[in-house]
Amino acid sequence: MKHTITGDNLQFVNCEIMPGELVFAEAGTMTYMSSNISMTARARGGLMAGLKRKMTGESFFVTEFTTTGGPGVVAFAGNVPGKIQALDLRGGKVWLVQKDAFLCAEGAVTLDIAFQKKLGTVFFGGEGLIIQKLTGEGIAFVHGSGDFIEMNLKPGEVTRVSTGNVVAWEGTVQYSIESVGSIRSALFSGEGLFVTTLTGPGRVVLQSLTLPKLAGALVPFLPSQQSSGSGFTLR
Q: What fold does the segment set 2-217 form as a domain?
């Protein structure tokens, strides 16, 4: 499958598929497609696979796209201003991604769940107990907020990341949560009590913005209903 990622901070992934190829995507992410593309909603992998997707915040059904009568084009986009990243899983690679990060993938890709191994990661990591696991001989696409940076950690190399800014990491990367130091530093630095620690070897994808930060920045500008119920006023 050929693909291109276009745009700056409101990106599309444009997939050119041939007869016999299949692309599946999170429900509601398709933006446009050529007239020879057919789409079908399926509980891909059966009932249990659909339930697993629901546990990670995805929809029970995914949408499958195929083409007839020659090459077809279908494009997908995320639901927030941000980036799209291609993850090549071929050769037995495993990627773990934060919930809601999956966008679309080739038919040979399997979307599954994985469980956090440490309680500290569960309670303080911002990702919850369950994350998404991508495997298979194909390419998958993830999306996130703001800009992306990809790091390739060497064996034993450690980087610390603000909680929630990790989009995806290879299965070889160790992932844990650590305290940042004194309570005073945590309270007055604005960075919180914990950071995510990533230990190589392997690649990681980070995002510059998180949805909670985006929502918090927008709150002062959102309309609020007046107590009298006569209308709305800006904060």
A: Double-stranded beta-helix (3.60.160)
Contact predicate 73/13, CB 8 Å:
no
- Does the reported pTM lie above 0.85? no
Distance (Å, rounded) from C-alpha 65 to C-alpha 106?
A: 10
The domain limits of the chain are 2-217
Beta carbons of 195 and 124 less than 8 angstroms apart: no
Name the burial class of residue 188, with classes exposed (0-12), middle (13-18) and buried (19+) by CB atoms within 10 angstroms of its CB.
Answer: exposed
pLDDT per residue over 198-227, tens digit each? Answer: 999 999 999 998 877 878 788 888 887 654
Please give the Cα distance from 134 to 196 (Å, whole number).
21
| pLDDT 10s digits, 173-186 | 998 877 665 555 55
Which one has a higher pLDDT value, 212 or 91?
Answer: 91
